[in-house]
């Protein structure tokens, strides 16, 4: 990999000043540690392809160094598509590897201050950059070929990974040595959309990670092995905020080679393999000091939440005069909505390896926000950031858990390594029980809404209060990082992630008053796929639906009226309606259709759900989804993300919750926190709006729409309205119990 | 014996014959008492026979074992239940294939033995297992869910008289599992009491599985009393 | 420390294990280095640990290594090995099923994070071996034990049907 030449470095700095893009340290309030991370120069166009591509002369493969965490969303394939398009590589020669933590090279261009995968920004933030990389590399290959063949550059063609001129022909691999050593061009020209072969291709491109994930060779952090590695499991308290008072390891250490050491988060059990660690921890006896712990039950917490209603709170969004409009309203609806804590429960529980050496530390993790993990690790280990290396591995799901602002698992692993003076590499492993009980949940939320209608069915006033714990306020144990988060995300006491989806709603609500009440609890919280939208969409869409019914208007028409100023929103609503036999599907026998729409992370999604309700069991039979993501780089992967969001959110809608009994989490594994199963899954159809707008994200935006579309369908089927999640329906049809299965005799 | 003494003269051959006939009679009676095959015992014990009363009293206790979750959870129509809370088995499994005895072993790719060991309980995973025996749903003829005591009594009695070896079944590892659903090998008071007092099910992984609340030997004695009393059933 | 005779992916070895009660999952992953089989729950609730034992799907987190001794074990790494499951199934049949399943999985871009997929594939292979033309309900019941948090179920279902067609010589 070539470092920029001195003249280019100067150029880049000047270009920065000229382009008006801020440089590190100038605008964003960074601490000294941040500045120590790496070169103070942000790379920006032209980007150096060597930072992102490795092209092999041996096997002619083009490997994308993917700046984003591949956690299933397909971003490695997506970014490779962009590069391959402009490079004119052959898809079959594309490969990927995940970039390590390195802020200046791999920063998220939307967030700037961090290398991070989140907020459904990966495709949009890298959209231009990846194509520029591909185009720059292509230009370098053309130059190299021109020099080698002594022909004009303009006459050289590149197609499907082959560089040609007349009788001359060379693979990218054979020219790579010469090409990639050239300085990248200062200006690149990107293809016109009409010439795209790969971007937006109707025929699905095979995912780059398909083979490794189907033959057992994909390496997740859980699979990392180092010599003399110790597996570590931590015994944590049953209640949040408790501390170790004392512990008795006498039984635990009867297991050969097991030893126990106290850490800030609990007592660590070190063992030569995972089973020994499990068995050792089972025998460990710990006494806890619970004096500062959260000891309330869920009911008491909600009771406290309610006491905040009616208080001043933090203003979120205000226009017109909501209370006057409500006074005028012919019909008034007043509703309270409750949402429980939710666990992320990725299939791969949290784990990472930390290896200390004389020079520093090396960490392997499925890290989602590498920069924060990097800083936190350096802080805990007492090292300079440049002494800490973080290798990013494939993650077995995350849904936000691996992008925790407080880097809890990385910090814990570093403490575990430090506690044995780095005498062996440690592999910190969380069990499923640790995961379900380990906190950092989607916050519990209470909503209180008053909305009105005029006599002719027009919205007249909307007052909305939300009560929840902020994710960003005091998120970490490191003051410097907390300060940064506060400055970036918490304005005037308002954590925007608490209210997104109510704040910024595209519905034309002229008299609107939204307030947030922040509560405190020792229960830690963090981003959960779609964050605030995971609850706000249910409230907005249930209220809008109920208002439509009160106004005797069709729920689709009612929404279209309120979304008239946003044609893209109307388009997805219409598309979902048209593709779903809206109002013409069979009814009766517990059948019903419901629609929901939501706009989040730049993307508009509408879904029509069809359900069959049978007493307290339900079958979600079909969901028709319409999405507007701008240009769909890989339409097939967009569809799979929507299908996946439905699979992910279905159990959250029907049955999942984390509840507390005197401070103890009542759930523990996949039996009492049961994800969606094969037989729960509806038939899903995904329709993508054709668009020439720049791509927006799809990792999260479909999640918020699932629960309300089902809730509204249940209303259509049963006239029963739900104001809380989970909806509480079982999903085992009666015929299973009595033996209607295919092989029962 | 008395016959030999009454006749006064110690005649070895006659003593032997009489002894033999007494022993034979005792043997016959014992056989009659212990046998579970053959004729309808009901006719042999009259309602006011103390053995009948004992049998009825025994049945009232036996039925609590049959209705205990450790037994009832697998004596179901199509789907086994789990735990003291008797929830539907997670993940959902169904009767599926049945063998010649009518035992349900699950559908392909979701057979009981996919998870349930023949080495016994898997303490690490909390998955039950019976040593050297296959896990499965009881035959539909022994579907007990929702059946009242008198019906259960009738079912068991019919099965026993029809050739089913009641005592043998109740002594299998599969049935005995109900008395120690946690350990592997099963907890033995003589062997384990000192080092490992009978565990608190709350400490173990998985759903709560309280053992059957009487000893297995007591249960076998009750069964015997019931059989001896003609397998009497309540009205 | 105990040694247990194990036959894994066509090769036999006396494997040193902590005890006969050690779950097969950890023997495979930590002692034999076969990390393709995954830990998801440790309680037979999620299927990520699915392997084949004597031709049947088994949850290795709940099978003690003692119970697997002397049996034919196949993991995801060995699933297209021609020597797999020679004892209990015609080896060509399981190999054919595996190849069709893998081809269908890749053609339909089934995977997302991929962590559950080893288990899904192992269950699907067993399902197709026993039921070459599974109905929707067969798939529901047969794949019930395999959880996917990323929600790839619709594609798994389609891939099983596609694999079935492939085995039938239909889809090319």
Characterization of the model:
The complex is a heterotrimer of chains A (about 750), B (about 240) and C (about 170). Chain A is of the alpha+beta class and about 750 residues long. Chain A is about 30% helix and about 20% strand. Chain A has three domains: about 5-215, Aldehyde oxidase/xanthine dehydrogenase, molybdopterin binding domain (Aldehyde Oxidoreductase, domain 4, 2-Layer Sandwich); about 220-290 and about 350-430, 2-Layer Sandwich (Aldehyde Oxidoreductase, domain 4), CATH 3.30.365.10; about 300-340 and about 440-740, Aldehyde Oxidoreductase, domain 4 (2-Layer Sandwich). Chain A has 21 helices and 28 strands. In chain A, helix 3 links the parallel strand 2 and strand 3 (about 95-100). Chain A starts with 5 loop residues before the first helix and ends in a 7-residue tail after the last helix. By secondary structure, chain B is mainly alpha-helical. Chain B contains nine helices and five strands. Chain B is globular, with a radius of gyration of 22 Å. The model of chain B is unreliable at about 1-10 and about 35-45 (pLDDT under 50). The longest helix of chain C is centred in the middle third of the chain and has 17 residues, at about 90-105. Chain C is globular, with a radius of gyration of 15 Å. Chain C has helices at about 25-30, 65-70, 90-105, 115-130, 135-140, 155-165, and strands at about 1-10, 10-15, 50-55, 55-60, 70-75. At the A-C interface, helix 7, helix 8 and helix 19 of A face helix 1, helix 3, helix 4, helix 5 and helix 6 of C.
